[in-house]
Amino acid sequence: MRKLVFSFLLLGPLALADEAASPFAAVEVAPGIYLLGNTNDGFALNVPEDFVGGGVGLLVGDEYVVLIDDVMEPTAPALLRKVEEIAGRPVDFVINTHAHGDHVGGNVYVAKNGALIVAHDKLRSRMENDPKLNTGAGALPVITFSEQMTFHVNDEEAFVFHVENAHTDGDAVIHFRTANVIAPGDISFRGLFPFIDLDSGGSVAGYKAAMQKLIDMSDGETKFLSGHGPVGTRAGLQQDLSMLIDAEARVKALIDKGMSAEEILATNPLAEYHDQYNWFFITTERMTQTLIRSLTTD
User: By C-alpha distance, which of 63, 122, 135 is closest to 96?
Assistant: First the structure.
């Protein structure tokens, strides 16, 4: 499974980092706060060739430049050029939301350019023991936390906290309290089937609980810097959670009937969600397989 994950995370031609044309677009969701992603309309993820890495949050102000995640190693240089185009100076801090190559793959590059990297304790532990993530000097976070911490920068209070066993076991969420903006990392695949990494401490139950926590702490004006997909809202997150709850219930009903994994896949219980939520990495079939595994593993 992990080999499949990292094969995906390294998708995308190196030409994406070509100086001739940036593969990154940016949308300002609040004064000085941006979501950066691929240049397709609405950061859509239609085909692998569009993929430049996870969604990146950016905070720009008079004091500091702060990044939320830093994409894959091949596209990190292009990301940093886009950031300097917006901010006019290099990055000071990077907050990693979880230990996947499309969110931490640029750590070595940004660290060489002077950024300090911050993350949850378990993220550092996972990266430290994985040569595909611990790729050289600067790859590992130099500041870690166990439960929560707060950045006071650019007249903004950025509250960083851990959510347990959700997408992985080391997920961090960043709440820009003044701006009413939340960067949830891969707790938000807006309008897409989510990747719940069961092999890295993630769980469907924890993922649902984390989504509900974000819904409870937000309001109708809150903007979410999605880990994948377009800028999110409370209503959008609620829609995605409702899908996941219903999808799990559909699969559980078939398991309770005594059907095998092969039989469940053949019935295509998530067909209703295919047209909206299916995408090239987490297909309808793969989402079904994740739910089957989650529901049948102690």
Answer: 122
